[in-house]
Write a structure and sequence with these properties.
This protein is an alpha/beta fold and 199 residues long. The protein has two domains: 144 residues, Rossmann fold (3-Layer(aba) Sandwich), CATH 3.40.50; 46 residues, no CATH class. Helices cover 43% and strands 15% of the residues. The protein is built from eight helices and eight strands, in the order E-E-H-H-H-E-H-E-H-E-H-E-H-E-E-H. The strands form two sheets. A six-stranded parallel sheet has the order 5-4-1-6-7-8, with helices on both faces. Helix 5 links the parallel strand 4 and strand 5. The chain is globular, with a radius of gyration of 16 Å.
Length: 199
C-alpha cells in the first residue's frame, strides 16, 4: 500500500531556468552525471568555499526566476486527501528549498535537503526521510525528473518511480535494470498515482 511519495524539486515541481551545465563548466567540473555539490564537497577548503558560494548564488537565482510547475498544487492536495504522506527530497540547500516554500507553501510533511544527509543518487537520500517517518521503501513512490532520482530510488528498493519528462542526456545514466514510468506532466503523474492507489 502506498503510504508516502518522495518528490524532487527542480525539474519536477519547480521550473528552474538556471543552466547547471554552465555552472559545471565555470567551476571546472566534469559532465559525469554526479551532483554539482558532490564535487564541490571534495574540493580543497578555499576552493570549496568559493565554489559553494557560487552554487548558492545560482540556487538563489533559480528561486527568483523559477516558477511552480502546472499541476503541483493539485497533485499534492490529491495525495493529502488520500492520506498519503508527501516528502520533498532535494539536493538543493535548505535555504533554497525554504525560499520556494515561502512563496508557495506546498503541503509537505517533511523537507529533506543536502544539509540533512546524503545526496541523490545515494540511496540514503530517500532512506533517511523514510526512516524518520517510519515507512518502509516498499510503501513508497518517487516522483522526479532525472537519473539521480532513478538511481537513488533503485538503490533504496523503492518499487514505484515516475520520471517527469526526463531529458535525453540523462538516459545513459539510467541503471539498465531499473524499472520506472514516464509522464510528461504532473497531471499525468496524478493519474498514475491514482491508479496505483486503486490497486
Amino acid at each position: 500500500m502506498l503510504q508516502v511519495v518522495l518528490f524532487d524539486l527542480d525539474g519536477t515541481l519547480w521550473e528552474n531556468p538556471v543552466r547547471w551545465d554552465e555552472l559545471r563548466r565555470e567551476l571546472g567540473l566534469p559532465p559525469d552525471g554526479l551532483p554539482i555539490y558532490w564535487h564541490i564537497a571534495r574540493l580543497p577548503p578555499g576552493e570549496r568555499e568559493r565554489a559553494e558560494a557560487r552554487l548558492r548564488e545560482r540556487e538563489a537565482e533559480g528561486v527568483r526566476r523559477g516558477q511552480l510547475k502546472p499541476g503541483a498544487w493539485e497533485l499534492l492536495r490529491f495525495l493529502r486527501e488520500k492520506g498519503v504522506r508527501r516528502v520533498l527530497v532535494t539536493n538543493n540547500s535548505r535555504e533554497s528549498a525554504a525560499e520556494v516554500l515561502r512563496a508557495f507553501p506546498l503541503p509537505f510533511d517533511l523537507v529533506w535537503t543536502r544539509e540533512d544527509g546524503a545526496l541523490k543518487p545515494d540511496a540514503e537520500a530517500f532512506l533517511g526521510p523514510l526512516r524518520k517517518l517510519g515507512i518502509v521503501p516498499e510503501a513508497a513512490a518517487v516522483v522526479g525528473d532525472s537519473h539521480l532520482d532513478l538511481q537513488a530510488a533503485h538503490a533504496a528498493g523503492i518499487p514505484c518511480v515516475i520520471l517527469v519528462a526526463p531529458r535525453a542526456w540523462m538516459r545513459p545514466f539510467f541503471p539498465p535494470e531499473a524499472r520506472f514510468l514516464e509522464a510528461q506532466t504532473l497531471a499525468e503523474v496524478q493519474s498514475l498515482l491514482a491508479a496505483r492507489l486503486a490497486q
